[in-house]
């Protein structure tokens, strides 16, 4: 099922999505990822800054204030990994996450990729609307995982 969001309807409500790095509010992004996300708690500030610097970033803004974020790690030719997707709680249940994912997968620089990938614990339904499925041939995928938090003794 292909989801079509009405950009004009969001703009009329005061929302905008932009890839303009100068609009990113690092403190909003850092606070959410470090304190509220389940996947990046404990991320060092300098590590997040490097991740943002080396990614294609999308911000959601309401009246010029950042209320959402996502980044894509990509070579813009064959592969993209969607990461750190969030909408602040006060702006949820408005379709913004769908609008954000649609904007990302339709971005001109991200067309014709062979593979998109992401990891999620709780948003399978959102991503399925845009064609994401569980990994096939999972036995071919490998990882090195180094969590940011050190185990407490």
The percent of residues in helical segments reads 25-40%
Strand order of the largest sheet: 1-2-3-4-5
Biggest β-sheet, characterized?
5 strands, mixed
Termini separation comes to: 48 Å
Number of domains: 1
Give the DSSP E fraction (strand runs of 2 or more residues).
15-25%
Low-pLDDT residue spans: none
How many β-strands, per DSSP? Answer: 5
CATH fold call:
Aminopeptidase
In CATH terms, what is the architecture?
A: 3-Layer(aba) Sandwich
Radius of gyration: 16 Å
H-E order: HEHHEEEHEH
Number of DSSP helical runs: 5
CATH superfamily: Gcn5-related N-acetyltransferase (GNAT)
* Broad CATH class: Alpha Beta
What is the overall silhouette?
A: globular
Determine the mean pLDDT.
92
Structural class computed from helices and strand pairing: alpha+beta
Overview in brief:
Residues 15-153 form the N-acetyltransferase domain. This protein is α+β, with helices and mostly antiparallel strands. 27% of the residues lie in helices and 22% in strands.
Written account of the structure:
The mean pLDDT is 92. The chain is α+β, with helices and mostly antiparallel strands and 153 residues long. It has one domain (7-140): Aminopeptidase (3-Layer(aba) Sandwich). Strands 1-2-3-4-5 form a 5-stranded mixed sheet, with helices on both faces. The protein has helices at 7-12, 26-36, 45-53, 96-105, 124-128; strands spanning 15-18, 56-62, 65-74, 79-87, 115-118. The longest helix has 11 residues, at 26-36. A hairpin with a 4-residue loop joins strand 3 (65-74) and strand 4. Helix content is 27%, strand content 22%.
